[in-house]
Hints:
This protein is α+β, with helices and mostly antiparallel strands. The protein has 5 helices and 6 strands, in the order βααααβββββα. The chain has one domain (7-174). The protein has a 6-stranded antiparallel beta barrel.
Amino acid sequence: MEEIRLVPAFLKVAYEPSSLENTTFVQEYYALLQLNDDPLGLWLKSSKIRKESEESDQVLLTLMIELHRKIDKLTHLVTSDQPLYLTLALQGTVKAIGHGYLEFDSNVLIPKESYYARIDMPTFPRRQMPIFFEAISESIGKIVMMHEDDEKDWSTYMVACERVMIRQMKGNQSEY
């Protein structure tokens, strides 16, 4: 087995055994990606708009777009019979993450079983990150499908957690 480097990160996760062939979960996976890649988000990412908005306050512009997304979600909740998220059978806590890996706080996985999961990511904007992973042990899963933008956010969050861990270690060493 390859060397897996994990850093402490406590994240809430909803998950359920599933394969990539389960069309219900695959549909939700792509629907959640579209929530993050809505027309306003794509418009803001456009290089032409970036140049035009250089003189604008980027934080304010991002907050306005997030407000618009929240209104869209609320509108969906009020007008649609369909829930925004599927109900997943299991809930848990991820205690550590790595590049392409996650570790649960207890032995809840069945090795070699595939799973679909939504992770509550504490990024800005706060969102549900959909992934598919395969259990390589009773507590560690290897991510097999994650959107490219989510990979960047995952890595950024992992680095932030690693920095916190290093600061804590340095703080403990200076106490001696």
